[in-house]
Amino acid sequence: xxxxxxxxxxxxxxNGTDGGDRAxxxxxxxxxTDGGVESATGGSSSPExxxxxxxxxxxxxxxxxxxxxxxxxxxxxTSCDTSCPVAEVDEEFPGPKFQGPxxxxxxxxxDHDIDESITxxxxxxxxDDACPSSVPLSQMHNEARGQFVEEQMEKLSVxxxxxxxxxxYRTSARLASVFPRTxxxxxxxxxxxxxxxxxxxxxxxxxFPEFATETFREWWKARGGAQVQNPDKRVAYFHGxxxxxxxxxxxxxxxxxxxxxxxxxxxxxxxCSGTPMFANGMxxxxxxxxxxxxxxxxxxIGDGADVIASCTSCSLSLxxxxxxxxxxxxxxxxxEHTYEALEYLRINEDLEGExxxxxxxxxxxxAYHAPCHARNQGLSRQAVExxxxxxxxxxxxxxxxxxxxxxxxxxxxxxxxxxxxxxAEMFEHMEDAEGDVGMTECPTCAMQMEHGTGYEIKxxxxxxxxxxxx
Length: 470
Prior knowledge:
Layout: H1 68-73, H2 79-83, H3 85-89, H4 96-106, H5 126-130, H6 137-151, H7 158-167, H8 169-176, H9 180-187, H10 190-200, H11 216-223, E1 234-238, H12 240-245, H13 248-260, E2 264-266, H14 275-279, H15 283-302, E3 305-309, H16 312-325, H17 331-336, E4 338-340, H18 341-348, H19 351-356, E5 364-368, H20 372-375, H21 382-387, E6 393-397, H22 416-432, E7 437-439, H23 443-453, E8 456-458, H24 460-468
Helix pairs in contact: 4-6, 11-13, 13-24, 22-23
């Protein structure tokens, strides 16, 4: 699903004839253009059209990301606009079509600034999936948002400082994990929440996730690393920030499931995938993290491993956004070798046969939500398809609506009500489902599901662990 553009921006060409021959076979002294009108410059034999004799002129000057070909592919069908959850609830948001190809053309002009509405894009990337012409909409949005933040946003503004803190969640989480219980209490203390909203614009209605008393990487080190050695079946686990600092049980489930299938699990050094940074236009921050990640993951790939991620936003970032936005050596290898964790097992193992022999201690019912970033990878039905025939499991898909939180979007005071309005359909479907436990692969979708319904939320890997390992 990754789209590539020419670095040199060569998206135009000359259409002409060999010159001299008419359709009726008569010779002409002057060549004709495509429209049948004789060329005033003498056709392709003219020295004025010799590529060595003149310098081409670009109508739109190219930049670091020349997306002219993608912009020209848009024929204004508005499929992207109708799929956009933000446009559905925010009448002032112009939608993906404007933010993508239209704004791309506009900002080629020297006197045109990026429209501030680009900061209202939640980076759900549903527009990519909706476009019938494969216009690189989210790539255009990321470029425009990065340019707006870099050149137009006031760096001392509350909004910029707040967004930078949210985008660099890994930094905050590392600090909080030094004293996890104290941090969890302090960040959810009523007066502190009120102060955060007034000073930083972080909605007091949101509950901060608790920090684990033992991070995944601490558990991995104390465990002694991989318990299976198998050079023929290796995976490099990109756990991401949330599974490390907040829900290590997801990472532990991943390790146990993969070791059950005979895989040697590697846990290379890594930083944030960059997903929240892309969403907030912090492209320089994202690149710094990407450089570390690519270097570590390329080394693991060289050792025979494929890369797996338990978070669908992380896998999408490594697969799509990295090669779209950065030119780091080895980045294409990382993209081509990255998979979502359940997806990889479905491709390479007989999960259906394994699950047919499984027995759960208790019957379990789940309301499953497919994250937008899972849909963009063609994974919207994988959990339902994996568990639908397992004895003792009821898995109900709660529909294709967006959860509304979209990473950091729902963590901004001015976006909170819109995020809840977007998620209303999902909340309603969850409450109508048979089970009162939610399921999703995305940690921020899990936050929104729990926030809107009060349900406990699990990851598909946790259910898979219960079924095949326990």
